[in-house]
Fold this protein.
Amino acid sequence: MRVIVQNDKRRAFRVNLAGPGVRGGLAALAVAALVSGCAQDASGVRPASGQQPSAHAPDAYGSEPRAAHAARVAAARRWNLERVPLTPPPPPAKKPVITPREGFEVTGQEGLPPVFTTVPTKEKVVFLTIDDGAEKDPEFLRMMSELRIPYTAFLSDYLVRDDYGYFEDMQSRGVTLNNHTLNHPYLPGLSYAEQKREICGMQDVIEERYGKRPVLFRPPYGNYNRDTLRAAKACGIRYAPIWNEEVFADHWDYREWDRRIRPGDIVLTHFRGPGDWGGTMRDMVREFLDKVTAEGYAVARLEDYL
Ligand SMILES: [Zn+2]
């Protein structure tokens, strides 16, 4: 499948496609795109409103990314999206300086991991972060790989321990696995030593199971105090991203009064299934992507900006 292989180092996200039947269909669509120059019209999937001819347009990257774009168009159609997700710009050459969101600092914040809800950037990008780990839907992994949508996971051991392999598969697809404590407690109710056990304990689990010690930590419920950030730092954590919006299987919640997405916003969702929120992970992804794409946003990789 030469046409969909992507050597573009700007996007480390890996594509993991299904069996030969799907590959054949994609090849045909990709070729059609190369001939027509605009696969969106032929696909029946509407282009995003506000999509500008710019450095983000596939033409700017030559023929191979154009083929990759065609694959994305085909994937958008296959997964029933209203629009083709926009391609994010290359990661920033100079990383933004991350500071705590105003009002989210702790006393003596200096040197402690910042708690923030938005990454400072002018690019129209948002970041998808997925918490806990209860639902383990194989179709979700396939959907995100085929659509090439990056996301970042925050795992709690008590929910993932019955199937570490699921998240190993996720990691092999380019997703970074991060710390969301061992048992998901309300951290401000615990002593410093207890908080440190929850955070460092999860660092150990992730390092042991997945070979990497996270630098991102998200406190359960977004609740923390100074001891939380001190403990996190002692465990090797550098950043404590929380979120500015939350997406569910059928709606959005907003932190801001005007209920608008902003450039660099971090969006929270959860590994949840139909029993929890009346939809699948795939429904949640559609709810998420259809809105961000319609508003002209691409989904970027949080780690690329930190
Ligand atoms: Zn959680």
